[in-house]
Design brief:
By secondary structure, the protein is of the alpha/beta class. The chain is built from 7 helices and 7 strands; from the N terminus they run βαβαβαβαβαβααβ. Helix 1 crosses helix 7, helix 3 packs parallel to helix 4 and helix 4 packs parallel to helix 5. The chain binds nicotinamide-adenine-dinucleotide (NAD). Nicotinamide-adenine-dinucleotide binds next to helix 1 and strand 5.
């Protein structure tokens, strides 16, 4: 018996096998969930479909989350194929490379709007389009980062977008609670993915993380998958509107010190 036997999950944001969304997909699959994917069109044939096939999934729909029509098409296709939905995962974000380096004060109006639209508003849009198929008892999860709360060099506009995303989680959780639909976020420590490589200086920050984090190690997509399984299953049935840290303890530190002092 798997924790998610008979449950149906739709996951947005797999780019490749390093994606956090893929770590979550593997964890849900291992507990018996039926899984479908949505990703940007250009990634599908080369990257996403082979991964989907490897866990027995053939539902892979293209979607640019800036386009409401494309979002609607994904959920229409889902409704036709599966009828309803128990689990929705939003694991995507985007900002221009030039807005992920240097000073935040230089962020352009367009760059700000783009980052907030793709990285925060998309959770609201996807959730709204999902409502007709989401069952009572279902659970929604998004991914955030500590840069929402504290200043992290070069994270800049994405920190502002993650702060908005975390507020969206709380407002959506309040809206959907009466329908018995939960909304939560995982705040993951740094993981080497395609999106992370867009943040200037990420590699250095990633390699110093394990010297400082209380557990003296980096975080993996499997670590995030395990916590996601908890938040997306009935084990967390009275938890909503929360941000759960999967960061080897980094966020508890006031003044980070390493082994060297
Ligand atoms: P990733 O590059 O594997 O995934 C990012 C995904 O966003 C990709 O699949 C990409 O196609 C998708 N995307 C970008 N613009 C899109 C659009 N307009 N429409 C649809 N999809 C779009 O990287 P990841 O690190 O796995 O990112 C997943 C989530 O985790 C993001 O929200 C990211 O901010 C968050 N996160 C990452 C880290 C980290 O260190 N990697 C830490 C905390 C939170």
């Amino acid at each position: 018996m798997g924790l998610l036997d008979g449950r149906k999950a739709l996951i947005f944001g797999v780019a490749n096998d390093h994606s956090i969304a893929w770590g979550i997909a593997k964890a849900l699959h291992a507990e018996g969930a039926t899984i479908g994917f949505s990703s940007v069109e250009m990634l599908i044939e080369k990257r996403v479909r082979p991964l989907a096939t490897s866990i027995g999934s053939d539902f892979v729909e293209p979607c640019d989350v800036q386009d409401d029509d494309q979002i609607e098409r994904v959920f229409q296709a889902w409704a036709e194929r599966y009828g309803d939905l128990d689990i929705l995962v939003h694991a995507l974000a985007f900002a221009r490379r030039e807005d992920l380096e240097g000073e935040f004060v230089d962020t352009s109006r367009e760059g700000f709007a783009l980052a907030l639209d793709v990285s925060a508003y998309s959770l609201v849009a996807i959730t709204r389009h999902a409502l007709p198929v989401l069952k009572p008892g279902s659970s929604i999860l998004t991914l955030t980062y500590y840069g929402a709360e504290k200043v992290v060099a070069n994270y800049n506009v994405m920190g502002v977008a993650k702060a908005a995303l975390e507020a969206c989680v709380r407002y959506l959780a309040a809206d959907l609670g009466p329908r018995d639909i939960r909304v939560n976020a995982i705040s993951a420590g740094p993981i080497r993915t395609l999106a992370a490589s867009g943040v200037s200086g990420f590699k250095g920050m990633w390699s110093r993380f394990r010297d400082v984090a209380p557990m003296r190690r980096n975080v993996t997509i499997e670590d995030v998958g395990g916590a996601a399984l908890f938040l997306l299953s009935d084990l967390s049935r009275s938890i909503t509107g929360e941000v759960l840290y999967v960061d080897a303890g980094f966020s508890i530190l006031g003044v980070p010190t390493s082994e060297e002092g």
